Here is the input.
Amino acid sequence: GKGLVHDDVDCSHYMKNFDIGHVPIRINKAKGLLNTINRQFGTLAFCKRWLERAGETKYLLALKHLCDLGIVNDYPPLVDQKGCYTAQMEHTIVLRPTC
Here is the structure.
């Protein structure tokens, strides 16, 4: 790859933003989805597939609404260029030629 990453278009991972205060939600489906997120995942990140396993259907508009309000943060995958692999790590690894 080129060594430069950018966000991909299709996002699959999300996490509730716990730093945000009370935000009024007017869409009932979004309220129900937020209740499911609180009950099933709490502070953990989750993906769309897990929402389906939790019994949610037709949730994409509600999830987008929660993201637009800032209640849920989306974490799109990082991509370099087509056909290349990109790894995300939690720790920094230093590679030196003398190791």
Remarks:
- Strands lie at 6-7, 13-16, 46-47, 72-75, 78-79.
- The mean pLDDT is 85.
- Helices lie at 28-40, 48-53, 60-69.
- The longest helix spans residues 28-40.
